[in-house]
Amino acid sequence: MKNTLLNLIFLLTLTGCATYSSFVEQTSRYLFSEDEEVRLGNQVLSETRASMSQQGVPRNANPAQVRKIQNMVNRIAAVSDNPNLPYEVDIYSTPVVNAMAAPGGKIIVFEGLWHPKNGLAKSDDEIAAVIAHEIAHVNCRHSAKAMTSNMLLGGSLAVAAAVAKSRESNTAALALGGAFIAYEGLVVTHYSRRDEYEADRVGMMYMAKAGYDPQAAVRIWERAAAGGGSSGSPLDMLSTHPNDANRMQALREQLPAAMEVYKKQR
Prior knowledge:
Distance between the termini: 47 Å
Number of helices: 12
Number of strands: 5
Mean pLDDT: 75
Radius of gyration: 17 Å
Largest sheet: 3 strands, mixed
Low-confidence stretches: 1-21, 152-182, 185-189, 229-234
Helix content: 55-70%
Structural class: mainly alpha
């Protein structure tokens, strides 16, 4: 697993790539092309499937549920800045309350997200808010940004440290397995606060444009910041989506603009 990720990441050709979009205001240059991000995303997805299978965690066990979430992903992706990526969703039957996106549009969702007692999302609009946030990360190319920074600052040492960290005994590591945790340690947890603000803003606009009520985004992140489900226990989601009251306020401030977009879709 460690060698596979190292080889894949460091054999990527060092090509400069710019991002231009209607929602993403920042124009950045990365050491990775979008095609290379797609290849990395495919590798992350493949290794995650293998790891979860070894642990006996069911994948896509409910076909109707998979169709529902895939349709949601497709609907939001269609109005995103990059609708032509190979968006694909996997759903794992685990109580982990989270959803994540690998580069290139691979979306991984855990059923704990909508668990009746301990889940975070209480409606389709709220699930859409989480999905839109993850699709925004993909479109903003935050993974490419984080990987570029890691290569420039630490190279293979950052990867090795992330793999070592993934072996720690914690709920998320046990549930997710090595492959995705290694990617999460390398990339997702290195999203900057600015990245999270951008994913919040862009995701809210995406869901509104796709016809989902953006008020749900405010509700779900307020609930996440407050501790999540009715059990009041800490959420796995908060390990990758840091709790920040300023983010909640920023979402509320953006809501009027998002509501204008949403009303046009009705």
